[in-house]
Specification:
6-stranded mixed beta sheet; single chain; 7 helices; 3-stranded antiparallel beta sheet; about 240 residues; about 25% strand; alpha/beta; 9 strands
Length: about 240
């Protein structure tokens, strides 16, 4: 298991109030797996992701990895591109730190459908192309683990579907460990091999998705999972179990 969390907890405190963003959570993520985390806004999804990335310090508990220093890539909801750099320069920005080569850049641009825009600047890109560039920047660093925080949430339906297909193609090709946060139940089912359901800072459901890719959103199995997850999100203190 490349990632294991043990009693991981995050509490935000002020002079007047304490807010538990993540209740004590013990969980593991298998190597080369695609896990989606779904829940309503404010349920703790992003907090969990930021703790895994080391972007925030836990109040209690630990995060451990099978290797001492795995490379972790983070894709945010906003592309966060540098406006003064071209698409190719944004993707290859990490090369400035040394240790990386531009050898795989043309192939990556081709896979992401960005070859024709390699010399374009962020202001010249659509939202979908900008997010493809952000994904390319993460993939260029060849991380062991990719954390994604609602990366397609601000995009229109058709652009989002295209990026979902691209991400699945990359997952099957690269077999990275991916943890993908979303508030979209359908997206969680179509992408994840496993869906974690979060509510009020706690994991209340852990559902394996035993369906081959690509998945039809109208398929009966998908609709059953969707109903199960929605029931879990609306429940109070109810553990959602796998019924397959």
């Amino acid at each position: 298991m490349p990632i294991k969390i043990d009693a991981l907890t995050k509490v935000y405190s002020t002079a007047e109030i304490k807010v538990t963003a993540l209740a004590p959570t013990t969980l593991s993520f298998a190597d080369h797996s695609f896990t989606t985390i779904v829940g309503k806004s404010g349920c703790g999804k992003t907090t969990l992701l930021r703790l895994l990335a080391g972007l925030e310090e836990a109040t209690n508990g630990t995060v451990s990895f099978s290797t001492k220093k795995p490379e972790i890539g983070f894709v945010f909801q906003e592309p966060r591109l540098m406006p003064w750099l071209t698409v190719a320069e944004n993707i290859a920005f990490a090369i400035r730190k040394g240790g990386l080569s531009t050898e795989k850049l043309p192939q990556l641009l081709d896979i992401l459908g960005l070859s024709a825009f390699a010399r374009s600047y962020p202001s010249e890109l659509s939202g979908g192309m900008a997010q493809r560039t952000a994904l390319g920047r993460t993939l260029f660093q060849n991380p062991d683990i990719i954390l994604m925080d609602e990366p397609f949430g601000a995009l229109d339906y058709f652009t989002r579907k295209g990026l979902q297909e691209t991400l699945l193609d990359l997952f099957r090709l690269e077999r990275k460990t991916i943890i993908f946060v979303t508030h979209d139940v359908e997206e969680a089912i179509l992408l994840g091999e496993r869906v974690l359901i979060m509510q009020k800072g706690a994991i209340i459901g852990d559902i394996p998705v035993k369906l081959t890719y690509p998945r039809d959103p109208a398929a009966s199995e998908v609709l059953t999972l969707r109903r199960q997850i929605l029931e879990g999100l609306e429940s109070k203190n109810v553990k959602v179990v796998d019924e397959s």
